[in-house]
Amino acid sequence: MVLVATVCATVLIATFASGVARCWWLAGVCSLAGAIIGLGVSFPQWQMFGESICAVATQRKFVALTFDDGPDAENTPALLALLAQRKVRATFFCIGNRVFQQSELVKRMAAEGHRIENHTFQHSPATNIFSISRLREDLTQAQAEILQASGRAPEYFRPPVGLTNPRIFRVTDELNLKVIGYTARGLDRRNDPPEIIVERLLRKLQPGAIFLLHDAGVPRERLLAVVTLLLDKLEADGYQCGRVDELIAET
Ligand SMILES: [Zn+2]
């Protein structure tokens, strides 16, 4: 963003100084830089600003299930019961202020072998334009809440909506957090049937894949139907599921 502002300021100054006609090429450079940076923000898997782990190189048929935006007082306990029944451990990218409100549930998630990781404290839609100090404050607060509730400080961070920028990587480096993206997301907030959501994930199935779903903000029955169908299909194809840290340990 700083780069875009700098380039745009240069174009404006040059426009006034030299006349509009001679500055078309600068306007073009400005648009191109803005477009490239916008794409870098939107596609963390392109690694333009820093390393996002979107998949792991492994030969083993092993994938990681991740659930964002929880914990949710209704959905998460039902999901925990299903995961326990299927003997699957997952990674939950939790929102710090929800962890604060549901600390007993988070304690249970950790006790059942799941990983609780950082998904900001506020989950603000403006996270991507936060200053470094505000980002640092938000992520640090989430770290503290998760440590207090689960007994373990997160090692991983997933930015809201998957958007990244250079400030996010600066703060995650400071806090020693690895940024986790995804190989495929179910887009499970859309009003699609479970089969469509699972198909969306399985289109990108490969050893070492990271799948993204939500345990909050989605209907509970559909969440359970999606996870059941996904686990059935993965099992039929000889895949095992685990946590992100277990997947990363494969390398
Ligand atoms: Zn989120």
Short description:
The chain contains 10 helices and 9 strands.
What would you note in describing this structure?
The protein is α/β, with parallel strands linked by helices. It has two domains: 41 residues; 196 residues, Alpha-Beta Barrel (TIM Barrel), CATH 3.20.20. The chain has ten helices and nine strands. Strands 2, 3, 4, 7, 8 and 9 form a six-stranded parallel sheet that branches. Strands 1-6-5 form a three-stranded parallel sheet, covered by helices on one side. α5 packs across α6, α6 crosses α7 and α8 crosses α9. It is globular and about 65 Å long. The N terminus is likely disordered. The site of zinc ion has 5 residues, from loops.
Keywords:
251 residues, alpha/beta, TIM Barrel, 2 domains, 6-stranded parallel beta sheet, 3-stranded parallel beta sheet, globular, disordered N terminus, binds zinc ion
